[in-house]
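We were asked to recover a plausible sequence for a given structure. The inputs and outputs are reproduced exactly as logged, with field labels preserved.

PROBLEM: sequence recovery
POSITIONS: 403
GIVEN STRUCTURE:
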């Protein structure tokens, strides 16, 4: 090793700057150039004696003007931390972990007690706590009392030096990356300005670009509105009963109107947009779906009128509307080149109110049993009653015979 490396190996590697240099290695270079060996408070007398023995110079008293550095460690009062990352940036060996606007904490086994993180903290939530006498901090402290202490301190110094060097290498890489990005942006700017457009042409180009972007956004929104209206209409048709109630029928009419309005808006935007080749099949499929929806609505209207014993004229008008919807479906089916469906009316069985009541009771009984079984303070008596109720409900449903 060179003389500078030998001197640096004896320094505590806290990188605290109390010697007047930005790190231990710059101070080692200063000592090699003739600076005093007593300017390192963390190293104390042990480091001074080791340097004196290496350089064959007299042992000096520690320069007290540099301050004192007892065995200490940084501690963050986490409840007061605001996540500013200033202490993370100040730590020379990356011994503080955290992220922006999140709590920070010190890695105790890595902290060297340099106290460089204290001053940058804007809320003063970092304090330096002395280590207990029983705790061994291999970097600093009193004179080594055994060979194990010397080896442990040497290993600790080497570890801290590696972390400091790795941090510097990372910062250098990040700076090089930022520099490369700035150069790339500057090069792109130069290339763009080498052949500038005429101001009028540039303004027209910006207007055309903005119009195209607005048209694309409007067209995309219109397509989304059509898709959402169609999905909502289909979902309602599946969810409502057969026949739907009056309120449901009114809702279906509103949904149908919204769907048609969304389709009309989309058609207007597509007609004003530049012509784009569009396959014929999707349009035919849309007509077919619309015809099916119209047929389902006419059937529901006729069924409701028959159930409510509406006047004969109204029923005849609804029957005619149903026939027209059937013919429209046939025409849409033929246009889509799909086989014509068989339009057969299937009368569904009326809902059995008594069976529905029994199944409702069964569902409630199951829910009660499940809730009591999950409870932690449920008594055995309540659980037995709930289970008996469930068995009784199941028996009633199984034994029920429709009239």
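RECOVERED SEQUENCE:
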């Amino acid at each position: 090793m060179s003389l500078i490396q030998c001197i640096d190996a004896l320094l505590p590697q806290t990188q605290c700057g109390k010697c007047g240099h930005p790190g231990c290695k710059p101070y080692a270079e200063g000592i090699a150039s003739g600076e005093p060996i007593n300017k390192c408070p963390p190293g104390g007398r042990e480091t001074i004696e080791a340097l004196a023995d290496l350089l064959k110079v007299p042992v000096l008293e520690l320069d007290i003007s540099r301050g004192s550095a007892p065995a200490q460690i940084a501690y963050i009062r986490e409840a007061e931390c605001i996540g500013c990352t200033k202490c993370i940036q100040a730590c020379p060996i990356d011994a503080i972990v955290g992220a922006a606007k999140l709590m920070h904490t010190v890695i105790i086994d890595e902290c060297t007690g340099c106290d460089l993180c204290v001053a940058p903290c804007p809320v003063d939530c970092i304090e330096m706590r002395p280590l207990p006498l029983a705790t061994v901090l291999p970097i600093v402290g009193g004179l080594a009392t055994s060979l194990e202490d010397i080896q442990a301190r040497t290993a600790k110094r080497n570890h801290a030096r590696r972390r400091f060097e790795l941090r510097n290498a990372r910062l250098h890489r990040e700076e090089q990356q930022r520099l490369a990005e700035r150069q790339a942006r500057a090069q792109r700017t130069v290339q763009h300005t080498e052949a500038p457009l005429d101001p009028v042409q540039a303004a027209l180009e910006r207007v055309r670009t903005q119009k195209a972007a607005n048209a694309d956004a409007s067209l995309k929104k219109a397509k989304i509105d059509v898709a959402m209206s169609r999905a909502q209409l289909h979902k309602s048709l599946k969810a409502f009963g057969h026949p739907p109630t009056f309120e449901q029928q009114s809702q279906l009419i509103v949904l149908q109107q919204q769907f048609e309005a969304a389709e009309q808006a989309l058609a207007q935007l597509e007609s004003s947009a530049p012509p784009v080749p569009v396959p014929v099949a999707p349009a035919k499929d849309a007509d077919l779906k619309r015809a099916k929806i119209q047929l389902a609505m006419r059937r529901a209207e006729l069924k409701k009128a028959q159930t409510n014993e509406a006047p004969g004229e109204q029923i005849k008008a609804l029957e005619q509307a149903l026939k027209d919807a059937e013919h429209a479906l046939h025409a849409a089916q033929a246009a889509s080149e799909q086989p014509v469906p068989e339009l057969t009316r299937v009368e569904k069985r009326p809902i059995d109110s008594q069976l529905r009541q029994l199944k409702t009771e069964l569902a409630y009984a199951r829910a009660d049993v499940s809730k009591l079984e999950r409870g932690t303070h449920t008594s055995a008596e309540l659980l037995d009653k709930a289970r008996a109720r469930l068995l009784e409900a199941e028996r009633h449903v199984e034994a029920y015979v429709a009239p």
